[in-house]
Design goal:
9 helices; Four Helix Bundle (Hemerythrin (Met), subunit A); about 70% helix; globular; two-stranded antiparallel ribbon; about 250 residues
Length: about 250
């Protein structure tokens, strides 16, 4: 017996709760677009905060969809498009308007490379997801995930905000940094998948205290905390690299 509510034409009806994951994705898209607008207006700190908000929503919508059993093909494609906008387009444009507008063209080339690498990575993920290959190790991603790539590419901005200064690195260095982060997303470098991490029950209380401390630091000293998070993430990549020279395909 079909327990799903349907209308008079027999079409399945969804509750507002079931639509909540897609609503979060739409809000994330609005955050990314508004971040671009804030960047064009010179409000760079607000723009970065909106991208961070989009990253938080990106981490919530998929898990919420699975918890509510409301996963759909449309939701998956919407999430992928949101990722490209929020983590492939918006960060590069922010860096360009922040520091690279006077770079005589090579800054814009770096933005294009970063965006293309992001969309290639997302396309690779979509193909692998549809192939339903269950043989890979979910403990690892292949290449740097696009949200992490967005955070890393904005690291010079975090440093600048923490030091209360303007762009302090040469344009060429910023452009090279953007290209390197883009290439890391489409690389075969194995990166740690935090979603599969298991915490021993005896250590759970210490983990929760650590999370509370990290959140308090992020609220009190936001930019320096983000710098430390980025450095810690790069350190995990370096540590994991010799252990697995090649990881199986994943996102």
């Amino acid at each position: 017996m079909d327990s799903e509510p349907r209308d008079e034409r027999g079409a399945e009806k969804l509750t507002l709760i079931q639509l909540l994951p897609n609503m979060l994705t739409v809000v994330a898209i609005c955050a990314g677009l508004t971040a671009i607008r804030m960047g064009l207006q010179g409000s760079y700190e607000y723009a970065v905060q909106l991208i961070l908000l989009a990253a938080v929503l990106d981490g919530m919508d998929g898990r919420l969809a699975r918890a509510l059993k409301s996963e759909s093909g449309m939701g998956a494609e919407l999430d992928s498009l949101a990722d490209f906008l929020n983590f492939g387009v918006a960060p590069g444009l922010l860096l360009y308007t922040w520091a690279l507008e006077d770079s005589r063209g090579f800054g814009w080339l770096a933005v294009l490379v970063f965006a293309i690498c992001s969309v290639v990575r997302l396309a690779r993920f979509n193909v692998q997801r549809k192939s339903e290959d269950k043989s890979h190790d979910n403990a690892y991603f292949t290449g740097v995930p696009s949200p992490a790539g967005a955070m890393l590419v904005m690291l010079p901005m975090f440093l600048s905000f923490a030091l209360a200064s303007g762009p302090f690195l040469p344009d060429a260095v910023l452009a090279i940094w953007m290209v390197l982060i883009g290439l890391s997303m489409i690389s075969r470098i194995p990166t740690w998948s935090f979603k599969t991490t298991r915490i021993p029950r005896k250590s759970a209380k210490f983990f929760l205290v650590g999370v509370a401390f990290a959140l308090a630091a992020a609220v009190t000293y936001a930019w320096i905390t983000l710098v430390l998070f980025c450095i810690a993430y790069v350190a995990t990549v370096i540590v994991m690299l010799p252990r697995r020279r090649m990881s199986p395909p994943d996102t």
